[in-house]
Amino acid sequence: MSRTASMSAPVLPIRGRLRPLGLGDVRITGGFWAERQSVNAVASLAHIEYWLEREGWIRNFDLAAGGDADIAQARRGREFSDSEIYKLLEAMAWEIGRTGDEGIESRFRSIVERVAAAQEPDGYLNTKFGRPGQEPRWSDLEWGHELYCVGHLLQAAVARARTRPGADDGLVEVARRAANNVCETFGPDGIDGLCGHAGIETALVEFARVTEDDRYLAQAALFVDRRGHGRLSDVEFGREYFQDERPVRHATVLRGHAVRANYLAAGAADVAVELKDASLLDAVRTQWQNAVARRTYVTGGQGSRHQDEAFGEDWVLPPDRAYSETCAGIGSVMVAWRLLLADGDPRYADLIERTLFNVVSTSPSADGRSFFYTNTLHRRELGTLPDADKPSLRAAASLRAPWFEVSCCPTNVARTLASLTAYVATSDDEGLQLHQYMPGTVTHRRADGRDLRVSVVTGYPYDGEIRVRIHKDETESDSDDPWSLSLRVPGWATEGATLTVAGETRPVEPGVVTERRTWQRGDEVVLCLPMAPRFTYPHARIDAVRGCVAVERGPLVYALESVDVPGIETVDELRVDTSQAPRLVDGQVTVRCEHVRADENAEQARGWPYWTGPNGSAPVADEVLDEVPLVEYHAWANRGPSTMRVWLPTTA
Amino acid sequence: MSRTASMSAPVLPIRGRLRPLGLGDVRITGGFWAERQSVNAVASLAHIEYWLEREGWIRNFDLAAGGDADIAQARRGREFSDSEIYKLLEAMAWEIGRTGDEGIESRFRSIVERVAAAQEPDGYLNTKFGRPGQEPRWSDLEWGHELYCVGHLLQAAVARARTRPGADDGLVEVARRAANNVCETFGPDGIDGLCGHAGIETALVEFARVTEDDRYLAQAALFVDRRGHGRLSDVEFGREYFQDERPVRHATVLRGHAVRANYLAAGAADVAVELKDASLLDAVRTQWQNAVARRTYVTGGQGSRHQDEAFGEDWVLPPDRAYSETCAGIGSVMVAWRLLLADGDPRYADLIERTLFNVVSTSPSADGRSFFYTNTLHRRELGTLPDADKPSLRAAASLRAPWFEVSCCPTNVARTLASLTAYVATSDDEGLQLHQYMPGTVTHRRADGRDLRVSVVTGYPYDGEIRVRIHKDETESDSDDPWSLSLRVPGWATEGATLTVAGETRPVEPGVVTERRTWQRGDEVVLCLPMAPRFTYPHARIDAVRGCVAVERGPLVYALESVDVPGIETVDELRVDTSQAPRLVDGQVTVRCEHVRADENAEQARGWPYWTGPNGSAPVADEVLDEVPLVEYHAWANRGPSTMRVWLPTTA
C-alpha cells in the first residue's frame, strides 16, 4: 500500500494545496470537542447499536444470510436501513483507530461477521432486494438506495483499512466484492444508470485510494458523468431532487435534496482531484460558493424545505421549520474539507467551523442518546417530549428523539465525531496549518523524517486566546530549518484580532496568517480573537428574516429560548433593542428586549390580521427587560419543551 | 319531499339566522363572475371529462363493472380518483340546473350509467378496493379515501335531486344504496372507524336533508363524534393531519391538512345545526375565528405547508411557497357559508368574497383549461411551462397545468363556479340580504306567495357603485307591506362608504346596512364603496412578511409580476415607496418603487450573506420607478413565466 493508503484519515486525495494529517497526529485533550468525542464513544455508539438491533435492522442481514423464505415480509426498516449498520461500522472503525477500545473492536467484528454472511456469491449485498418475494436488484434506482448502501459499506471498509491495515475481520474484502459487483453491473457495458441518492461516488474514489485500484475511480467518474441527463424518472419533487436535471459540470449551485447535493459535490470533487479535471473541480467550487452565499443558514445549516428535504431557491431561508438536516450539515463539512485540501482557502474552514459548532453539535443531546434530525432556527410552540421508547415517525421532532423511522443522523453524527480530529490541521511542504482550535497537540512527521510538533492551549470557543507552543524532542537541535506555522483568522473576526509572536503583537485580518521561522523549543504564537458578542444582520434579499438580527459570539450562534424568560408565554413576544450591544453578564450573553403582548393589542380583536394603514399593526411594548439571557444554539432544547428563535425582531 | 329538499341550492339547513335562495332565484347577467361561469360551462367541464377519460379514471368503473380479473393491475389513478368523477357529476348537475344544457345532460347520464354499473349488490361502490387482487374494503381508513369518495357521490346526488327532482337517471338511488352500505358498515354496531379525509359528514347531512331520512344524519353525527380520539394510526404528519388528535368540540382552531380541516368543520356545522348542538356549533365558530385571525393569507388562502398540505402554527404564513391549496379555499367558502346561514355575521361573507376573488378565481386560467393547485404569494424563479399534454406530477407547478396526478382542484373549481349564485343572497322573515355584488337579479318567493325582487347594476369589483333597484310585476301594488333590504358593507371599506336611499346619502361602516320600507316600483338603493387602491400592513406576529406591504383595491389583492417591469431581472429587486399611496393610472393600479440590484452591491462579493453591523446589508437604490403597474393577483401567470410577489418590501 502507498503512504497515503495506510494513513488514518477520512479523505486522502492524491494532490492538492494542503495535505491531511492522520487522525493519530492530532490529539484533543479537553474542551468542547473532547467532551463530545467522549460522549460519542461512551454513549452514542452503544445507543445506536441497541436501536439497530431492537429495530431489527442488523437482523435483516441474518435473515438474508439464512435464506429466509419470508424475508420480504420479515425484513424491517426502510430501503436504506443497511446503510445505518455500515455507518455504525465506520464510526466504530474510527473510534477503534482513535482509542484502540477493545470492547468496540469486539462488537465491530461481530457485526461485520453478520454483514459478511449476507453477501451473495457474486458480491451483491443488500437485504432489501433480489431475493424471492423481493423486488429485483436494481429495479428502483430512483428510490431503492442500493448503490448508496454500497457506498456506506465502502466508507466503513476505508475507515477500517486506514485504522487497522491488514486486520483479519474481512470487511475490506466484503467491500471489494461489493464494489466489483457494482463495477461489473454499472460499468461502461453494464446498466446505464445511477443511484437516486449520491454517495457511492466519493466512496468509490476513497476505496480506489485505499486499494490503489483505479477501476473504482473510473466507475465513480462514470457515475458523476451520468448524472444530470434525466436517466432517473421524473418524480413529484422533480429530477432536481436527485441532481439529475443538469450535468454536474454545468450546475452553478447546490440544489435539490440537500444531503444528496452535498454527497454528490464531495464525490465530484474527489473525482476531479484524482483525474486532474479542472473544469469539474471548478464547477464544484462555484456550486459551493453560490450555495454558501445564498442558500445557507447563519448556523451553516443547509436545506430549507420539509417536503423534499431540499435546498430552496436563492434567498429562501425561513427560520421557522428550517429543515437544516443534520446530515446535510455533515455533507457540507465533507465538501468544504475536500475544497480546503484542494485550494487552501480559509473560507472553507470557516464554514466547517460554523457547521460543526452550530449544526453537527446541535443534533445530539448532552448525553448522546437523542438527536435532532432537523435543526430549526425558530420553534413557535412548546411541542412535546418524544416517546423515549419509540422511534420518531417524524424528522421534525419538537425535541431530540432517541431514534427515527429514517434514522440517518445518529450514525452520521457518530462517524463524524469519531473522525473529528481530521479537520483540525493539515500540512504542506512549508509546514503546518491549524484550521480549527481546540486544546491538544498536533504532530506531523515530514517526508524527511523530521517531526513538526505543536500544542494548543485555549478555552476556545469561550475564550479568544489561542496559544500555540512549539515542541521539540530533547534530541532535536534548536537550529533546524525554518518552517511555516499558519493560523486561520475566522471570517467573523473582522475587528480586533491580534497575533503575538516573540513578544510582538500585531493586528490581523480574517484569512490566514503565516509565521515562517526557525522555531525554538517553547516558542509561542498567540492568536487573540475578539470575543465580544455581536449582532448579525441578514442580507436584504433574505425575506424571511427582514427586520431581525441574530446574536453571535465567536463561532457560536445564540438563541432566545423561552425557558430562560420565565413569565413570557412565547419568545415571539420579545423584540430586541439593537441600540444596546449584546453584553456578557456573569459569562452569559444577554440582550435588552421589549416585551410586546401583541395578542392583547386591540387590533387583534378585529379578527383579521391585515390592516389599511401601518398604525394598526404597531405593537405596544409592555415592559423592558434589560438582561435577557441567550443560550448557545447548539445547546437549546436540553431543558425540556421551549419556544426558541435565532432571528430576533428588532424594536426599530 | 319537503320544501327545502326540492330547492336548488347546495346547502339547505333546517334552521339558521338566514335562509339560502335557490340557484334559480339569482341570475348573474354580466361581469367578473358571469364570464367565469360561462368559461366553466363551455370549456372546463369538457376539459375535465376529456382528462378523466384519457387518464382512465372513468374507465376504472367499466373495469369494476365488467368484473375484470386484472383490475388490481389495470386500474389507473390514485386511491381517490373515483371522487373526481363524482365532483364532475356534481358540477354538471348544478350546470344543468342553471342552464338546462341538453348536451351536458346527455354526458351526465352517460357517466352515471357507467358509475352505477360498478356498484356491488350490497351498495359498496369504489373501484380501488375489495375485488380479487385488490386490498380488502375498509382496510386502509387512514389513506384509502373510501368514505371520502362516497361523500362526493352523495354530493353529486344531492345536486341532482335538487336540480332535477325525480329524474330517472338513477344517481340518487345509487347514492342511497352506497349511503345505506356506509350506515350498515360504520353504524353503532359496525366498524368503530372513520375516514382519514373528512367529507362524508357534510355529504351525509345533505343527503339526509334531500331524502328526509335521519339515519344519514345520525351516521354523520357519529363520524364527527368519533374523530379526535386517535382511532386512526399515527402517521409521519401526526394525527393532527386528519384532525384525529383532538375531539372536534374541543379543538379551538383549524389545523392539519387544510382541505380535511375545512371539510370536517363544514360537516360539524351541518350536524350541529340539524341537531341543535349549540356547543358543537360554537366550537366550529371558534375554530373559524382563530384560523381567520392567525392562519389565513391576505388572499383568503389557507394552508402554508407543502409537506402535508397543512395549516402551519399560528402566524406561519410564508408567502414564498405558500401552499394555499385551491381546494382548501373552496372548503373555507363551504365553512363560512354554513356559519353565515347560521349566524348572519357579515364577516363570513367578507371571507367568502375575498376567497372567491383571490383563491377560487386564481386557480383556472382565462380559458378554463389549466389550473393552479397551489396558490403561492411569491414566485422567485421564472419556472417553466408545464407540458400541456401530461398531467403534472407536482401540486406546485410554476404555471397553471392542464391536469394533475392528484387532480382535485379542477373538479372542485367546476362545481363551485356552477353553483356560485348560491352565495349571492339570502332571505329571512324580514326580507332579502345581498352578500356578494354582481350584475343581475335576485327574486325570492316568500312563504306568503309574495315575490321580493331586485336587480343589481354594478361594475364591481372595478367600480364601487352598487345600484339595487326594486322590481315589481304590473299586478303588484306599490303599497304592500314593508320589507327589509340588507346590504353587506365589506370589512375592507373602513372609510368613505356611503348609502343613498331616496336621494339621501349617508356614511356607512363595515357590517350590514338594512333599509326597511314599503318599497315602490323603481326604488333604488345605492351603495358606494371606496375604490382607491390601498396599502395593507400585516400583523406584527407574521414574521414572514415583516417590513412589507400588500396592495389591495376593493376585494382584490394585487401582485407585482415581472412581465410588467421589463428590464428588471426579478421583482425581488424592487422596493415600494409607501410615502406615496398606490395610484390608478389609466385604470391600472400602480406604485412607486426603488430598484435595488442587491446582487451587485459590494457586500455580496464577500460570499456570506450575514454581517456584523447593519450597514453591510443596506441596499443602494439604482433608480426610482414612478408608476410600476400591478396585476390583479387572480390574473397573474396568464402571460407566461414570471416572478411575482404580493408582499412588497418597503423602502423604509
UniProtKB/TrEMBL annotation, chains A, B:
Please state every residue range assigned to the domain named Non-reducing end beta-L-arabinofuranosidase-like GH127 catalytic.
25-420
Where would I find the Non-reducing end beta-L-arabinofuranosidase-like GH127 C-terminal domain in this sequence? 533-649
User: In its UniProt entry, what is this protein called?
Assistant: Glycoside hydrolase family 127 protein
Q: Which domain of life is it from?
A: Bacteria
- Tell me the organism's taxonomic lineage: Bacteria, Bacillati, Actinomycetota, Actinomycetes, Micromonosporales
- What InterPro entries does the annotation carry? 6-hairpin_glycosidase_sf, Beta-AFase-like, Beta-AFase-like_GH127_C, Beta-AFase-like_GH127_cat, Beta-AFase-like_GH127_middle
Q: Where are the transmembrane segments?
A: none
**Non-reducing end beta-L-arabinofuranosidase-like GH127 middle domain location:** 432-531
What species does this protein belong to?
Answer: Phytohabitans aurantiacus
